[in-house]
Amino acid sequence: MYVRLQAAHLDGRRVLTSAAILAETLRGAPRDAGMYRVLGGVVVEPVSREIGEQAGKLIGAAGLATDQAVDAMVAATAVAQEGPVVIVTSDVPHLTALTAGHERIHVVHVDKIGA
């Protein structure tokens, strides 16, 4: 992932994520060191009231359950950005459903991103 992040920066891309994703990835364990290394090159957007509200609307529009809240916050963070957005994820079906109708947002499986 670190190599992919470096490549994105070299291409002039802004890499960001939702702060909500930290709850899915960090565990207070030694393995967190690799994640913190990656996060050093990522803008971590806070989960604001507006993002939370948008996430709820996206869950409703997609007909998903609230257990998809973190994915919905990632999608809402993408919706809030200007210009084209690429979401890199291992959960393409849910993120695709959550961003349906937002033509400038493209969802790509993490394995499809060049190493």
UniProtKB/TrEMBL annotation:
Superkingdom in the source lineage: Bacteria
Protein's name in the database: PIN domain-containing protein
Annotated source species: Sphaerimonospora thailandensis
